[in-house]
Amino acid sequence: MNGYELLERLVQFGELTIIDHDGRRITFGQKESGRDEPCVTWRLNKPGVINHILTNPRLNLGETYMNGNWDIAQGTLHDLLSILRINLESSVAPRNGRATLMSTMGRILQSWNSIRTSYRNVGHHYDLDEVLFRACLDDDLHYSCAYFEHPQITLEQAQRAKCDLIAAKLCLEDGQHVLDIGCGWGSLAIALCQAFDIRVTGLTLSHKQMQTARARVRACGLETRIDIRQMDYREHTGRYDRVVSVGMFEHVGKRNYTTLMRKISDSLTSEGVALLHTIGSRLPPAPTNAWIRRHIFPGGYLPSLSEVAQSVEKSHLHTVDVEIWREHYAMTLAAWNANFQRHRARFVHERGERFCRMWEFYLVISQTSFEAGITTVQHWQLARHHLAVPITRNYLYQDSKGAAGITAQASLLKATASGTEDSAAPQAARSDHPQQGKG
Asked: What is the reported pTM?
């Protein structure tokens, strides 16, 4: 069966028209009237493209786009990837023993990230030209999922809402010391210090990120309260009131999950609270997309809920809340791609067409994965004591600005007559109405 015959059987959603390298037009599927289905025309620039893609869609689709083997004649890249994702992923090719073995071996290799490997992997992506990130991201350089309280708000507003919600989940109050593992360009550290009278120690593996973060901290006049270091979390020691990690867990490597959780636990005081924000998979554990691993995030791996839960269970942490963000990252990625498209001509001139195709394919393929619910964002609220935070979520949403500045250190409910509560537990309020702090 050739590629066209397979497409004819596969495409049941949307309408896909192919213009072959010799100008022949072939249409697969049919857009149904009244249904919101994509309709796209796919121009192939050389022979054999479809057959090559279908031998390994997860790798070769991106490779052939980067190499200019095909273009979009009508519609958008997002339309095409949506059609292919839904139709291709509904058909699973039989797996022979060798393929299964290679997949297993590949997963073992990618799950082991030594300190040296972690530095190299992060440098591959985050040491890219900062101009690229400034063109795509919001003004405050948040390179993680924003929180869209309403679909109509801007990317900048959604990123501030994300910081507000993280502050609320950390139960921040003035005077605390926060460890930010994977601090990036210092965006979250700056936002938290502007809302609260706290100190933040930020860790990044990227030398360029450290330099930029330190410069931004100085520009904000926060150099006495924010300390940015180029350091692996495994090399760091200290005790903190709060620990936060946003968009870093994906780079840890599965074998290091428990190591990170134990480091978080060891870094917290007895009343400490932590917030882990990570991209994850709703599916059972599986290897990372081959194209993403090759070109974007070497060593990257998206954890399932069960994998994170197992690592928490092996630490001294309590899981006090878990929240799943679904469409938020799809909207974030769409905004980043829209920003990139406005500057695309510049980057074609500076970095070349192949690089630009790689970058936009990364943004759009990631967007479609979130839209399908294959990937999500996981929020793990963790604590050294199970009553370190209020017992309902009411405290998170009382402030109209997204709970920014809430000082919500929960106090311990009275010990039972049997005296079963930990004497070292934090003092907790009976109420779910914590006092308001700065910001």
From this structure: 0.83
